[in-house]
Amino acid sequence: MKRLLIADDDAGMRAALEARFQRRGWLVDVAVNGTEALEKFRAGQHSLVITDVRMPGRDGFELMREVQTSSARPAVILLTAYGCVPDAVEAMRNGACDYLVKPVCFEKLELAVEQVLRRAEEFGRDTETLIGHSAAWEQALDRARQAAATDADVLIEAESGTGKELIARLIHRLSRRKPGPFIALNCSAFPESLLESELFGHARGAFTGAVAARPGKFESASGGTLLLDEVGEMALALQPKLLRVLQEREFDRLGSNQTVHVDIRVIATSNRPLEAAVSEGRFRADLYYRLNVIPISLPPLRARPGDIRELAEHFAALYAAPGGSGTPAANVRLSRELVARLEEQAWPGNVRELGNFVRRAVALSRGGEIGMEAFEHGKAAEKTPPLKSAPEAIPPPRPPDWKPGLSLGEMERRLFAMTLESTGGNRARAAELLGVSLRTVRNKVREFGLPPRDNYRNGLSNHELSGIALPGDGTRTNIAQTSVVQTTMVPGGGRSHSNAGNIGKLENINRKEQPCP
Q: Strands 294-297, 333-334: parallel, antiparallel or unpaired by DSSP?
């Protein structure tokens, strides 16, 4: 039999409610204040509590907080003769399933009870796929159930990979908006100019390329739920427009002066605390307060190690099943040693990282038991050692050594030298890379005294000729004076010019390098 606890200091209200619910088949207990109600709850473990807010001693808010810390987690409906918005907001934040103002219409109260019980039943079915039984996770699911009972906006703050969108979808499925659309938009995936159009839509001709009118996400989600994922990444200039639509539930499309009205619930998520962003000036305080009507915080996986085994086994069964993108025919299971090791990991990527780990282990297994070798699957393969360069290959160009005070002329010389070195002296290719004409490259080679083509082909790199001076400083050195003519001593005290035969060749090269007319 269904069991109900009624707490109210008004004797007439207690008697009326007791008689009404007893005729509906409820087993009813009554109490005159919160303290007595708590004692009876601990003795009876009721599935529903209806309590007045203002009572002598322990009030309705304190009673609600106490009963919801129990394992039974009953549904709570608050009654008050002093209805006001702050009290209603506090009630929903603290876990009330409904909030009614006296004098209470009994038909309305019975309808509220039916809705609360129906949502509780649906919540039990919908949360079967949300794995975990840790206290922090159960508390987050309870808060999601409470939020679903209202139309209030919700702010979910949690690390990436903890299931923020899953909770948002759960709230939508449990709410009266379930028949309506659920639309998600990642605010960090669009630049400011495009995000505004995505949110509010645009009229034809509103900007270049707007060849037809297009509704935005707010308009498309009317009657349902809009998820603003990573709302903290939204540009400051766009935040006042979002604030207005949250307050008024109306907006104008870009390029249009016609106001669009929407009936919508907004759920916002952030992987960083928005309160800190407000302090840093990156997020508007008024927008934060408007979004943070019902806050939900999801625990990271490291805060719920007792759920890791259940999650890992769930993922293993999911990906090993036919169509699970794992090994269809494999009857896989996780070894005790592997599960114990999984429970010791920090999992910075949270449930998403754990799921990917198990998916990889299942895909690379041959069936049967998966052991500690699963940790080896995630390591990158050893890189193949690079092939040794052939003796005649040109050494790779060195990165430029830019330093403060370097002249523009020297920077230009080094850039041309480095580019020619990388192309093996191919001036046409160097001109293409630098975005200049071939004539410019030829003139710069002459101006900077850079080596001719043959030097690159012979394996001589530019950095071996870095001592060439810029023209105009009185120290220009002809290339024939730098490295081509080498003088060595020979027995008998004579000198031998080993490269003397190259002088004529260099003179011919220099004649070829005259600037183009």
A: unpaired
Rounded to an integer, what distance in angstroms lies between the CA atom of residue 24 and that of residue 18? Answer: 10
Burial class of 10 by CB neighbour count within 10 A (0 to 12, 13 to 18, 19+): middle
Q: 394: which residues sit within 8 A by CB, 6+ positions away?
A: 421, 424, 456, 459, 461
**Token output for 313:** 């086994």
Distance CA 114, CA 75 (A): 11
Give the pLDDT confidence of 440-486 residue by residue, as tens digits: 888 888 888 888 877 765 544 444 444 444 444 443 334 333 333 34
- Tokens standing for 491? 């027995």
Give how far the C-alpha of residue 224 lies from the chain's centroid of Cα atoms, to the nearest Å. 23
Region of poorest pLDDT, from 163-167, 168-172, 505-509: 505-509
Nearest Cα neighbor of 235 from 279, 188, 289, 275 is: 188
Q: How far is residue 312 from each of residues 188, 192, 344, 366, 389, measured CA to CA in Å?
A: 30, 39, 13, 18, 48
Q: What separation in angstroms does the CA of 277 have from each of 274, 287, 298, 403?
A: 5, 12, 19, 37
Q: How far apart are CA 182 and CA 167, in angstroms?
A: 12
Encode burial over 448-465: b for 16+ CB neighbours within 10 A, e otherwise: bbbbbeebbeeebbbeeb
> What value does the mean pLDDT of the chain take?
79
CA distance 269 to 232: 8
CA distances from 99 to 3, 90, 235, 266 (A): 20, 10, 36, 21
What's the rounded Cα separation, in Å, for the pair 315 and 351? 10
What is the Cα–Cα distance from 152 to 293, expressed in whole angstroms?
Answer: 7
Q: How many CB atoms lie within 10 A of CB 12?
A: 8
Which is nearest to 199 in space by CA: 234, 155, 154, 173?
A: 234
What distance in Å separates the CA atoms of residue 184 and residue 294, rounded to the nearest whole number?
19
- Rounded distance between C-alpha atoms, residue 325 and residue 272, angstroms: 32
Summarize pLDDT for 385-407 with one digit per residue, the tens. Answer: 544 444 444 455 555 566 676 77
Closest CA to 224 of 175, 286, 291: 175
Residue for token digits 């702010």?
155
Phi and psi (nearest 5°) for 152?
A: -70, 150
Query: Which residues lie across from 487 on neighbouring strands?
Result: 497
| Token pair recorded at residue 83 | 């209805």
d(CA 26, CA 47): 11
Per the DSSP assignment, residues forming a β-bridge with 27 are 3
Is the peptide bond between 103 and the residue preceding it cis, with omega within 30 degrees of 0? yes
